[in-house]
Design goal:
By secondary structure, the protein is of the alpha+beta class. Helices cover 12% and strands 30% of the residues. The chain has a single domain, classed as Jelly Rolls (Sandwich).
C-alpha cells in the first residue's frame, strides 16, 4: 500500500507538482540557496536600482524591477522590449551571477528542458498591495525555450489562465524558495499576481522578489 500512497496526488514526496502540460512547480527547490541569491540581488540593485517602469499607456507598473544578464526587459512609452543597457545609466545590466545561471538550468532540466541557457533575468520586487495583472510573456524570440521563475520572500497568489485572456484562471500559492518552469504548451498562458497581502518575511521583510529567467533571443 505505502509505495502507491502518492500516485493519485498532484504533489508527490519530491515536491513536484504538474500544473498543466509543460508547467511544473518545484516546491522549495531554491530554498537551500536563498540567502546567497538575496545577497546577489542586493549587489545587483546597487548597480541597477529597482524602479517602477511606465507602461506604453503611461501607467506606472505596480512592481519595481531591475535586470541582470546580457539583456534586460524594459517597458516605457515606446513599448516592451529587451535592451542590453540600463536606460537609467546607459551601462550594461550587471552580469548574471553563475549561481543564477546554474539554478535556472538545473530547474529547467529537472522539468524536462535540458540545455536551458537564459540570456535575461528580470527581477521583480513586490511589497504588500503590489500586483501584476493578467498578461502573456511574448516579447521573446524563442518560444521553444521555457521560462523559469524563482519566488523569494513573502508568499503570493499566482493566477494562471489559458491561452486566451478570457479563459478561466487557476490560483496557486507561491512561497519562498518555490521554482516554476513554464514551457511547451504552457509557455504562452496568461498569468498574473494578485495584490500582495501584508506580512514580514524572515529574510526579506515586507517584500517578495521574483526572478524570471528567459531566453530573449
Ligand atoms: C506562466 N512575473 O515578470 S513569474 C513577469 O511572480 C511575471 O513576478 C510574475 O509574470 C512574478 O512577466 C510571475 C511566473 C511566470 C513567468 C512567465 C510565465 C509564469 C508564467 C509564462 C507563461 C506562463
Ligand atoms: Fe509574465
Amino acid at each position: 500500500m505505502t509505495p502507491d500512497l502518492f500516485e493519485n496526488c498532484d504533489e508527490g514526496p519530491s515536491g513536484r507538482e504538474e500544473l498543466a502540460p509543460g508547467a511544473l512547480v518545484l516546491r522549495g527547490f531554491a530554498r537551500p540557496q536563498a540567502e546567497g541569491l538575496i545577497a546577489e540581488i542586493a549587489e545587483i540593485s546597487t548597480r541597477a536600482p529597482f524602479r517602477q517602469m511606465l507602461t506604453p499607456g503611461g501607467q506606472r507598473m505596480s512592481a519595481a524591477m531591475t535586470n541582470c544578464g546580457p539583456l534586460g526587459w524594459i517597458s516605457d512609452r515606446h513599448g516592451y522590449r529587451y535592451e542590453p543597457c540600463d536606460p537609467l545609466n546607459g551601462k550594461p545590466w550587471p552580469p548574471m551571477p553563475a549561481s543564477f545561471l546554474h539554478l535556472a538550468a538545473d530547474a529547467a532540466a529537472a522539468a524536462g528542458f535540458p540545455g536551458f541557457v537564459p540570456d535575461a533575468c528580470l527581477i521583480n520586487r513586490y511589497e504588500p498591495g503590489t500586483r501584476m495583472s493578467l498578461h502573456q510573456d511574448r516579447d521573446e524570440q524563442d518560444l521553444a525555450a521555457p521560462i523559469v521563475s524563482v519566488s523569494l520572500g513573502l508568499p503570493a497568489v499566482f493566477l494562471f489562465g489559458g491561452l486566451n485572456r478570457s479563459d478561466r484562471s487557476d490560483r496557486l500559492a507561491l512561497m519562498h524558495g518555490d521554482v516554476v518552469v513554464w514551457g511547451g504548451p504552457s509557455r504562452l498562458r496568461f498569468h498574473g499576481i494578485l495584490p500582495m497581502k501584508e506580512g514580514t518575511h524572515a529574510l526579506l521583510g515586507r517584500q517578495r522578489i521574483n526572478l524570471t529567467f528567459r531566453k530573449a533571443v
